[in-house]
Amino acid sequence: MFKKILIANRGEIACRVIKSAQKMGIKTVAVYSDADRNALHVKMADEAVHIGPSPANQSYIVIDKIMDAIRQTGAEAVHPGYGFLSENMKFAEALEKEGVIFVGPPSSAIESMGDKITSKKLAQEAGVSTVPGYMGIIADAEEAVTISGQIGYPVMIKASAGGGGKGMRIAWSESEVKEGFESSKNEAANSFGDDRIFIEKFVTQPRHIEIQVLADQHGNCVYLHERECSIQRRNQKVIEEAPSPFLDPETRKAMGEQACALAKAVGYTSAGTVEFIVDGNRNFYFLEMNTRLQVEHPVTELITGVDLVEQMIRVANGEPLAFKQDDLKINGWAMESRLYAEDPYRNFLPSIGRLTRYRPPVEGATDRGGIVRNDTGVFEGGEISMFYDPMIAKLCTWAPTRLEAIEEMRLALDTFEVEGIGHNLPFCAAVMDHPKFVSGEMTTAFIAEEFPDGFEGVSLETPMLKRIAAAVTAMNFVAEVRRTRISGTLGNHERKVGRDWVVSLQDAEFAVTIAADHDGSTITFADGSAHRVASDWTPGMALASLTVDGAPLVLKTAKIPSGFRVRTRGADLKAHVRSPRQAELAKLMPEKLPPDTSKFLLCPMPGLVVKINVAEGDEVQEGQALATVEAMKMENILRAERKGIVKSVSAEAGASLKVDDVIMEFE
User: Fold this and answer.
1) CB-side neighbour CA atoms (13 Å) of 280
2) Burial class (CB in 10 A: 0-12, 13-18, 19+), 511
3) Does 594 reside within a domain?
4) Among 537, 549, 550, 560, which is least packed, fewest CB within 10 Å?
5) Are residues 170 and 27 in the same domain?
């Protein structure tokens, strides 16, 4: 077995690989850029080598710098993680030439399947059903328009060397093809050093289901069942689960066998994933093969008990697989929520800054019979950089059934504390409660259909509001009792805590009466209903873990005047707990209105201005592109919300902007 492995990556996947290597008694080497000098993967590894400036194209994807780090440390093998150089044939060839083992497939398999254009041609030759498209190199936007017209709209524009949603656009018209082609080429060049683009038919209402395969150097190949990855936003997966709620055993077996046949046809070894589009009749079509470890591999590990990173290392060491297909059963259900540094209330635009609070839920077995796992690459006090992918953690849960796994995820998301940056935890929580997701009846169009105007938070139903109202009433009582003990008596009168309160939250108001005892509180509502609340919460705790009528309720809390800010199940509420007289007076207070910014184009996220499309005095139409801002390897086109005339332009190409910096003003 190898004595030392270098991980040619960063963030959570580097940390993930280090964990398996350390479990196997293998020393690890981390590489890092300027931005990652204090990163978690650097702290976890046995050695670390600096490889250059912060941009990935000057550090993590520069092959010569990785090779220098290998020579400096004497690493015998390299695990590439995913992204960066993981599917770069030249990198695999450089390692082979140096006599260093690549923990992944042979360079010939990367060449065959890592390139999306080549892989589709090979799949067609092998008789695999593929989505219609143009597999040749496309020279320019005009040729892209011609090809798209021949295929028929809508079309998918993809980077040949892409992954993770980078360099990918859906186009419904000629103008969208022209615009999307240029952005895809730029993103592909910046992310992968390869700007080749291909186009295929975009299949509407599909499911995205992928098969995990594992092959050794002795001709053995198995599939570790499937993952459902249909919950996507901007072609980037957000929620994954294993197995799929849609497949039947016959389709699962057919897809698995086809995936293995394809892997064997190209001499594949190591872990890989064959991705399919599956229609409503369970017809499946080959999309691509990812010749690397997938981001969502933990859900497969949770239902099979197989450590995929360990198996990749053992295969690279020449060991045969220790199990056969019949040994790989599906045990329970697993969910994964990707935690992104993106602000869901700003159309999921990237967010950077310091993690002033980062407290994931406790990992391991839960008292409900489930499991919580969190793969992460950050820590409290660390910085989220603008230079890399915005995913900072993968929260996973396992339980015997799908509904139980969803409930475990709900509680884990509510328990996950993240402050200092915008993040998508509220959105993930909203998905977990959505009836279409809970039923399993979703497609890749789920987010576009269910959140057509973006995410504006969650409005809770009355039963849930009453549970929260009962909880904050009990919390308020604890806080009031504490205050009376601190202040003691006033003159000859001992301060007492009232029993009658009015709770207002969302658009609801509840008159309640509390009766407290040593074991908790009973909160009775005006309609006669009552809730029993128990908790060990004390004032100042940011997380309140309660039970309401015996069922768990987790609230992220912060003190505000006359109550609490409460976050749970994707909702962000101001819960005011007032005496009846205070509630009466509060209704007379005027409402404070936010400032009017309708005449300004504000930068929605920290980033670099790539292009300004208009000038002072220009008339713009609704939907017209005004500027392009790049952040976290993604180009974001900012468009006019309505017709108007540009009064002034405050930013120029190359400028680095903060959130809400003014880009231009309109008359």
Assistant:
1) 6
2) middle
3) no
4) 550
5) no
Closest by Cα among 667, 662, 618 to 647: 667
Residue 138 corresponds to which amino acid? I
Q: What is the structure's pLDDT at 350?
A: 79
Q: What is the CATH number of the domain that holds 387?
A: 3.30.470.20
* Dihedral pair phi/psi, residue 229, rounded to 5°: -125, 35
Contact call for residues 21 and 359 (beta carbons, < 8 A): no
Positive or negative: CA dihedral 462, 467, 468, 469? positive
User: What CATH number does the domain containing 76 carry?
Assistant: 3.40.50.20
DSSP 51-65: ---SSGGGTTT-HHH
Q: From CA 502, how far away is CA 486, in angstroms rounded? A: 24
**Exposed (0-12), middle (13-18) or buried (19+): which is 355, by Cβ within 10 Å?**
buried
Q: What is the pLDDT of residue 164?
A: 62
* 220, 318 contact by CB (below 8 A): no
Secondary structure (DSSP) of 395-455: EEEEESSHHHHHHHHHHHHHH-EEESS--SHHHHHHHHH-HHHHHT---TTHHHHH-TT--
What integer pLDDT is reported at residue 487 of this predicted model? 57
Q: For residue 466, give both structure tokens.
A: 């009453």
Task: Classify residue 61: in a domain, yes or no.
Answer: yes
CA-CA-CA-CA torsion sign (643, 646, 652, 658): negative
Note whether 56 and 112 are same-domain residues.
no
Q: Which residues of the chain have a pLDDT value below 70?
A: 114, 162-165, 486-495, 633
- Quick check: is 496 in a domain? yes
pLDDT of residue 335: 98
Residues in the chain: 667
Q: Clarify whether residues 615 and 507 are in a common domain.
A: no
Structural domain boundaries, residue 325: 104-131+208-331
Please give the structure tokens belonging to residue 235.
């072609």
- Which residue in the list 200, 210, 288, 301 is annotated as catalytic? 288
CA 232 to chain centre: 9
| Cβ neighbours around 560 below 10 Å, total | 12
Which is it for strands 4-7 and 656-657: parallel, antiparallel or unpaired?
unpaired
* Residue with token string 């209402």: 205
CB 58 within 8 A of CB 52: yes
Active site residue 616: no
Amino acid at site 265: A
- Cis (ω within 30 of 0) for the bond into 298? no
Strands (E) located in 254-410? 270-278, 284-290, 333-340, 342-343, 349-350, 353-354, 357-359, 364-365, 371-376, 383-384, 391-399
Cβ-contact 6, 67 below 8 angstroms = no
For the chain, how many structural domains are there in total? 6
**CATH number of the domain that residue 649 is part of:** 2.40.50.100
**DSSP-derived secondary structure letter, 1:** -
Whether residues 169 and 234 fall in one domain: no
| End-of-domain residue from the set 201, 236, 254 | 201
Alpha carbon distance 393, 378 (integer Å): 8
* The one-letter amino acid at 242: A
Provide the pLDDT for residue 159: 85
Which residues neighbour 242 within 8 Å (Cβ) at sequence distance 6 or greater? 225, 226, 227, 228, 299, 300, 302, 303, 330, 333, 334
One-letter identity of residue 661: D
Strands (E), 463-541: 489-490, 493-494, 500-505, 508-517, 520-525, 530-535
pLDDT on residue 496: 80
* Closest among 398, 396, 253 to 332, alpha carbons compared: 398
Q: Which residue, among 446, 417, 422, 452, has the nearest Cα to 434 in the 3D structure?
A: 446
